C-alpha cells in the first residue's frame, strides 16, 4: 500500500528576505483638470444618460432630457455658459 499512497514532503518555499517589494507609483491626474471639467467627465462616464460617442455633450444632455432621463441642470449650465470643450471624453481620445 505504501507504494500507491506515498507521503510527500512539504516543499513550499518561503520568499527570501533579500527580495524587495516592488512599489507601484500611482499618479493623480485629478489636479490636471478644472473642477468643471471633472464634473463633465463624470457626466461622460455615466451611462444612465445613454451613449456619448458621436454626440457633443450638449446634444447628449438634450437627448437625455427629451427621453425623460432627467440629466442634471448644472451640466447644461456649464456647457452653455463656460468655455469648456463640447466633445465628450471618448471623442477626445481619437
UniProtKB/TrEMBL annotation:
Protein name, entry field: DNA polymerase delta subunit 4
Organism annotation: Canavalia gladiata (Sword bean)
Pfam families to which the protein is assigned, alphabetical: DNA_pol_delta_4 (PF04081)
One GO term (biological process): DNA-templated DNA replication
Region (Disordered): 1-23
GO cellular component, as recorded: delta DNA polymerase complex
An MF annotation (GO) of this entry: DNA-directed DNA polymerase activity
Amino acid at each position: 500500500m505504501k507504494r500507491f499512497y506515498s507521503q510527500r514532503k512539504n516543499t513550499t518555499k518561503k520568499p527570501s528576505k533579500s527580495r524587495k517589494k516592488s512599489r507601484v507609483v500611482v499618479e493623480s491626474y485629478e489636479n490636471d483638470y478644472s473642477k468643471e471639467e471633472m464634473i463633465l467627465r463624470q457626466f461622460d462616464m455615466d451611462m444612465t444618460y445613454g451613449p456619448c460617442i458621436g454626440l457633443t455633450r450638449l446634444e447628449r444632455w438634450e437627448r437625455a432630457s427629451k427621453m425623460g432621463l432627467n440629466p442634471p441642470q448644472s451640466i447644461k449650465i456649464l456647457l452653455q455658459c463656460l468655455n469648456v470643450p463640447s466633445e465628450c471624453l471618448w471623442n477626445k481620445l481619437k
